[in-house]
Specification:
Rossmann fold; globular
Length: 281
């Protein structure tokens, strides 16, 4: 049976900036897929099988005299996940337009469009700033394109909102098999019939084209995928990106221009950011 335990790596940095951004970029290339900013550094998450000693030998903050760096690791057992998230999972309100609830919440707490999510180790409960921004951005899509790609689908929450808002075909892809399974479960839980979930990477899109592509992933992966997104977008199609910091916005916007993508809207919540791009040719 696959080991679904999670490695939590807590890293303290002095000074924190710009080293936290550098560290997130480096750890993204070393198998880490989720990050939380702390007052003194970051917390990074990855499958428990990753060798922490090897990872820390390959990040620049350890060997650079310009920064003091310390770290500690913790293994979060898979079987404890549901207990932990139930204790901490409060309803998520995206202004007054949408609500993300857990199955055990009183449904009367919902405002606007309501989605019921049970994470099962997947990223995307809506509590994180990036998911919150992406939901808000989806509600600004008028009309909602019929064909939607959700890369890094996690729990499937963005796919579910896309169907609620009128999408007729949503392809939800995640590199983790348990995320693809969880997204399918949540789609069924919310009565969705237009979402196809796949475990895989960007090559799973084949020759399919989309009016909207959603990608809430880290900056490095977004840059690797950018040409694929541009090729798969209809002219006039929209690309919603998040999963990066406000300090990364200009880099991504500039990078996207070489693929006929131009920025239409920027989003910010705390230190996190999102952008909406349009394919112009």
């Amino acid at each position: 049976m696959k080991n679904l335990d999670t490695l939590e790596l807590t890293i303290t940095l002095n000074p924190k900036e710009p080293w936290s951004d550098i560290l997130v970029a480096e750890l993204s290339d070393l198998g880490f897929d989720s990050f939380v900013q702390t007052e003194s550094g970051i917390q990074a998450y990855a499958p428990a099988k990753i060798d922490t000693e090897t990872v820390m030998k390959n990040v620049s903050c350890v060997s650079d005299d310009a920064v003091k760096c310390s770290w500690e690791k913790k293994i979060i057992p898979h079987q404890n996940w549901n207990v932990e998230w139930e204790a901490d999972f409060h309803p998520v309100y995206i202004d007054e337009i949408a609500t993300i609830l857990a199955p055990f919440h009183n449904q009367s707490l919902g405002k606007g469009n309501v989605v019921i999510i049970q994470p099962q180790m997947s990223f995307g409960t809506g509590h994180h700033q990036t998911t919150w921004m992406m939901v808000k951005a989806l509600f600004e899509m008028n009309p909602m394109p019929e064909n939607v790609l959700d890369m890094g689908a996690g729990t499937g929450v963005l796919s579910i909102f896309a169907e609620q808002l009128g999408a007729k075909r949503i392809l939800a892809i995640d590199i983790e098999d348990w995320s693809a399974i969880n997204a399918a479960e949540n789609a069924n839980r919310n009565g969705c019939s237009n979402i196809e979930t796949i475990c895989g990477d960007i090559d799973e899109i084949g020759n399919e084209h989309f009016g909207l592509i959603i990608a809430n992933i880290n900056k490095n992966v977004l840059k690797i995928h950018m040409e694929y997104y541009a090729n798969a977008l209809d002219v006039g199609g929209k690309l919603l990106l998040s999963g990066f910091f406000s300090t990364d916005v200009q880099e991504l916007v500039t990078f996207a221009t070489q693929f006929s993508l131009t920025v239409e809207q920027e989003y910010a919540k705390d230190e996190w950011a999102g952008i909406r791009l349009v394919k112009v040719a």
